[in-house]
Amino acid sequence: MDNFRVIQPVGGTSPLILSIPHCGTAFPDDIVQEYKQEMLPPDDTDWFVDRLYSFASEYNITIIAATCSRWVIDLNRNPDGQSLYNDGRLITALCPTTNFLGQAIYKDERHSVAPGEIQRRKELYFEPYHNKIQELVNAAKNHFGKALLWDCHSIRRSVPAIHPQPFPDLILGSADGTSASPAIIDKAVKLLGNAHYSFSHNYPFKGGYITRHFGKPHENQHALQLEMAKQLYMDDSERMYDEERAIQVQTLLKQTLTALHPLLLQE
Q1: Which Pfam families would you find in this protein's record (predicted)?
Q2: Integer Cα distance of 154 and 168 in angstroms
Q3: Residues 246-256: pLDDT tens digits?
Q4: Are 150 and 257 in contact (CB under 8 A)?
Q5: How far apart are CA 25 and CA 77, in angstroms?
Q6: Is-contact 149 17, C-beta < 8 A?
Q7: Residues 188, 199: Cα–Cα separation, whole Å
């Protein structure tokens, strides 16, 4: 089973790459029966984010999107198991055993996945995704001199186990200003922050492993994470795609990505 797909634009290339690590819903045949079937597909999925960003090809932007569920392995967690935050919030593991509500997802109620199985999943699913990202970033750098990886996410408006208050509409993560150049961060903050959506920068999310790992401005590779409330492009139940809402947020996303493009072409 392919655990990701790459959508290459047909009209040209761009220094921008979109990563969508949590939109997948597939489970390998060899482990799917170990999960509680009534909990599949996982509500923790970043539903329809790949559909939301499907305009990217028209702007010559490459997309890499996961097909495998984050419950198999979370592509945005530290592969060494180190926690990304230490503020008391619930953080699901590299190979999760609970959902965002703390509920067990395996039939046997296991509290951890065996180290050998974690290593197997890393080799089969985690490493190929990250290796492909670096390949795409390197290709962009070789062609344009710089690259920007935009990591795309969404979350329910309210997840008390992670954050006691409802999330703002948009949360830009730049790893506390270290994952991209000041010019790129400032431009993104200005465009997203001046829109008609509520906005926050680096709180309560500052970017996951993908942003922190691939964001190396000193090597001309930049990375930003954009988290958004699902209600921006889904209905109020956060279950169905809402075309009208999606078009509105797509307008902002197009404006932002288009405005960042020239910054990646400057010497």
Answers
A1: FGase (PF05013)
A2: 11
A3: 999 999 999 99
A4: yes
A5: 17
A6: yes
A7: 11
